[in-house]
Design brief:
Radius of gyration: 28 Å
CATH superfamily of the largest domain: YVTN repeat-like/Quinoprotein amine dehydrogenase
Number of strands: 51
Number of helices: 4
Distance between the termini: 44 Å
Helix content: under 10%
Largest sheet: 9 strands, antiparallel
CATH topology of the largest domain: Methylamine Dehydrogenase, Chain H
């Protein structure tokens, strides 16, 4: 099979491109003032050097900020290089290889080894610090490699190769190579594999082939399934938050495939697709096309927007935490690096000296991208870092190009959520909470008033009640209590002891229920029997440690007095961390008709009396895209653009945490405190 039209000029015709359009230099196009998003971070672009260099390789960036990238030199005979550059743009080392290096490097999990493929059909392993060779693995005498390696959780390196022999392509396929350079297995395909593999959290390896198939392999190399597309596939896949596999084809179609290989939908662009998709925090799919456009597609296939540029978009975009997208293009017989926001509006763009087919990388507060004529650019990324909530924010997932969805951090579970606030005679303290899972189990729910006095609370609610209702308004069986009784409810006492809840005095007027709740949404309302006012604490505990169902959300609305606060607590237990979305919503409550909202809340999260995170204004930290995406995933209502509401995404280790919400200055009013387990 010969190269199709776009692929035709990607290959040996490099010399013609390298001799043209070298006069323009990007220094005039990038403002020299420092620390402005999208402006040059290095005094000048780094040049790959050598005779007629060209770069299609995407930079990989280590945790120390070093940048690794492959280069093709159009010498006779041809040569290639692997370069290492520090974060200041200074060369660290360079290794010469027998021919072009279009493959993008990948960095091992421990950061000590760089893997890269070459047009000589070999995969190379070099020491990251000095470029010393570690091993070389030949995939076949007539093979070439432009596929970028992916690295599995066990260190296995997966890379595609193509067999150039005219009599057959028996060595084309995906190779699995052990960290010591020995072959573990090979999956033979009908012809070339230039697609870079993507590895799901369960170890499944996905890749495309020019034989028009998308393959899913088990970690042992056995075929899980094969999906037939309608044209050859050069592009690499991306994996969505629900496991959906997205991959583009030469005929311009983007395929959405379920993890079992079924077709979910097909979206047609107006030109060939060579780059991989990137996925936003909210699940939006971004894909470039030779139709001169970047496409933004919702997970249901509906078009969110398209953004037109002056040439084909052949590389993979990168999504930042503020929701903005950075991508390269072949603009107007030159090139460009573009940035658009989550709504498809231009943020900035710079003109480069040549095409940008190298996929941009966002890392270390920088944007790295290379031009086809051998220049490597470093731009400031001061608006936001790479998205940390997206399932696949850039080419090969992350700056190290490991091409793998990290295994779920998992192990952490919410076992207790609580909020302390004021209850007045005509205003209840309302706590909404969500139980998710497959089984019903018991939850201990308490409304503490008088017992708070022993903790120094000066105005405890004298006689609280607790009412637990379903969304329909129906009170759940056993879901109401006025004054708890140890004698009448020994199971409540036992549950409290087992859960570590502080004991209630015998005969106190605190209220406690222990209902059996199925997975659903519930409301716990704390009222006052005698119409009095005061401070109350509402608590929700998992009474049974059963992973079949778990707490995933608590939302409490209360009033913050001038100089006062609402205090929420949460307890994470288990064997690992838990990611949470925490919000303090004041101004955005007005859209729901809530009067007297807290105009400017501030949110602080404490661990052992130490503040571990603060936020005042949810967009203030440059994480708007991740926060909005997390809200969409967990089902929270969107916050008004640039409102003064607060939000934070935190990954918390097992422990007890406190959240304090107060008003800035003398602000007071109604506020909603929300805690969500964010997958």
């Amino acid at each position: 099979m010969g190269f199709p039209s776009w692929q035709f000029w990607r290959r040996p015709r490099r010399a013609a491109f390298a001799l043209s359009w070298l006069a323009a230099f990007c220094g005039a196009a990038i403002a020299l003032h420092a620390q402005v998003d999208g402006t040059a971070r290095w005094p000048r672009p780094f040049t790959a050097g050598g005779r007629s260099p060209s770069i299609e390789s995407s930079p990989a960036v280590g945790s120390d900020g070093w940048v690794y990238i492959g280069v093709a030199l159009n010498t006779t005979p041809s040569e290639g290089r692997l370069l290492a550059i520090d974060r200041n743009g200074e060369p660290k080392w360079s290794v010469t290889l027998p021919t072009w290096v279009d493959s993008s490097p990948a960095i091992s999990a421990d950061g000590t080894t760089v893997y890269v493929g070459c047009w000589d059909g070999k995969l190379y392993a070099f020491a990251a610090k000095d470029g010393m060779p570690r091993w070389t693995h030949a995939t076949g005498a007539s093979n070439y490699i432009v596929s970028s390696p992916a690295i599995g959780a066990d260190g296995t390196i997966y890379v595609g190769a193509g067999d150039l022999r005219t009599e057959g392509a028996q060595d084309s396929g995906l190779y699995a190579i052990a960290p010591n350079g020995t072959l573990r297995w090979r999956k033979t395909t009908g012809t070339w594999v230039e697609s870079s593999p993507a590895i799901a959290a369960n170890g499944t390896i996905y890749f495309g082939s020019v034989d028009q198939n998308v393959y899913a392999l088990n970690p042992d190399g056995t075929e899980k399934w094969k999906f037939g597309a309608s044209s050859p596939i050069w592009a690499s896949p991306a994996i969505g938050p629900d496991g959906t596999v997205y991959i583009g084809a030469f005929d311009g179609k983007l395929y959405a495939l379920s993890p079992d290989g079924g077709e979910k939908w097909v979206y047609a662009t107006g030109g060939s697709i060579y780059g991989a998709p990137a996925i936003g925090a909210d699940g939006t799919i971004y894909i470039g096309s030779a139709d001169f456009q970047l496409h933004a597609i919702n997970p249901d296939k509906s078009v969110r927007w398209t953004y037109a540029v002056g040439g084909p978009v052949l590389s993979t975009p990168a999504v930042r935490a503020d929701g903005s997208i950075v991508f390269g293009a072949d603009d107007d017989r030159s090139g460009g690096i573009h940035c658009v926001d989550a709504n498809g509006a231009k943020v900035w763009a710079i003109r480069t000296s040549h095409f940008v087919r190298s996929s941009p990388v966002v890392a270390d507060n920088s944007i790295y991208a290379a031009t086809f004529d051998g220049f490597i650019h470093a731009l400031h990324s001061t608006a936001a870092p790479l998205s940390s909530f997206s399932s696949w924010p850039m080419f090969q997932h992350d700056p190290r190009h490991r091409g793998m969805v990290p295994p779920p951090q998992g192990g952490g579970r919410l076992i207790n959520l609580s909020t302390r606030a004021t209850v007045s005679g005509d205003t209840n303290l309302i706590a909404g909470f969500v139980v998710r899972g497959a089984t019903a189990k018991y939850y201990l729910i308490r409304a503490i008033g008088p017992t708070l006095a022993q903790f120094g609370v000066s105005d405890p609610l004298a006689d609280p009640t607790i009412t637990v209702q379903r969304q329909s308004g129906q009170i759940v069986p056993g879901g109401f209590n006025d004054n708890w009784s140890e004698e009448a409810e020994p199971s409540v006492t036992q549950a409290g002891l087992q859960l570590g809840a502080f004991p209630l005095p015998v005969g106190s007027k605190d209220a406690v229920v222990l209902p059996l709740l199925e997975p659903a949404a519930f409301t716990g309302s704390v009222g006052s029997t005698d119409g009095g006012s005061g401070t109350a604490l509402v608590e929700v505990y998992e009474a049974v440690s059963d992973p079949g169902s778990t707490l995933v959300n608590l939302s409490t609305r209360g009033n913050v007095a001038a100089g006062g606060s609402i205090i929420s607590g949460l307890v994470v237990r288990g064997t690992g961390p838990l990611r949470l979305l925490i919000r303090a919503v004041g101004p955005s409550l007005a859209q729901f008709g809530v009067p007297g909202v807290l105009a400017q809340p501030t949110l602080s999260v404490y661990f052992q009396q130490n503040v571990i995170h603060t936020n005042t204004g949810w967009t203030a930290d440059g994480l708007k895209g991740d926060l909005a995406g997390a809200a969409r995933i967990v089902g929270a209502f969107p916050l008004a653009e640039n409102s003064a509401d607060c939000a934070a995404l935190l990954t918390l280790n097992p422990g007890d945490y406190t959240i304090q919400v107060s008003g800035v200055g003398s602000n007071f009013g109604e506020v909603l405190v929300e805690i969500y387990a964010a997958p």
